[in-house]
Amino acid sequence: MVVFALLVINKAGGLIYNRTFAPGLQKLDSNEYLMLAGTFHGIHAISRSINPAPSTPAPPGNRKPPTTGIESLESSHFRLTCFQTPTGVKFLLFASPEQPNTDVVVRRCYEFYADFVMKNPFYSLDMPIRVEKFDRALGAYLVRPT
C-alpha cells in the first residue's frame, strides 16, 4: 500500500503543485503534468454536467441537487482519487489500488493545504505552491518508511 503522487489544480485548471512520493508511476516531465492537470480539469467539468439525474426529487426550494465530477478512477496499477474543495481547487491523489481510505488521505492533504498554504501571508492565490511547511507535512504523512 503506497501513495505515488499528489497534484493540486487551481479552479482555472492550472497545475499549482505536484509531488511524487514513491516510485511506481511512469515518469512525466513538467509539460506532461500541465497537460494532465488541464485534461483532468476539463473531463471533471464534463462529468459534472452529464451526471445522471437522481432517483429522488430535489428538496423544496432547491432547483437541482448538487453534482460532483469524477471522484475516483481505478485501474489495475493505480487508483486516482479527486477531492474538489468548495472554492474549486482539486486534489488528485495517485495511490496503489490496495491503498485503503484514499478519500480520507486526500482530505487530510487538503487540511495541510488549508493550514500551511492558505494561512501563509506570502502565498498568492492560484499561484504555484512553494511552502516548505506544506511539503514537510505531506512528506511526513504520505512517505512510508521502508
TrEMBL record:
InterPro entries: Longin-like_dom_sf, TRAPPC
Record's keyword terms, sorted: Endoplasmic reticulum, ER-Golgi transport, Golgi apparatus, Transport
One Gene Ontology cellular component: TRAPP complex
Keyword RNA-binding: no
Gene3D superfamilies the record matches: 3.30.450.70
Localization (cell): Endoplasmic reticulum; Golgi apparatus, cis-Golgi network; Golgi apparatus
SMART domains, per database record: Sybindin
GO biological process, alphabetically ordered: endoplasmic reticulum to Golgi vesicle-mediated transport
Quaternary structure annotation from Swiss-Prot or TrEMBL: Part of the multisubunit transport protein particle (TRAPP) complex.
Family listed: Belongs to the TRAPP small subunits family. TRAPPC4 subfamily.
Protein name as annotated: Trafficking protein particle complex subunit
UniProt organism field: Dissoconium aciculare CBS 342.82
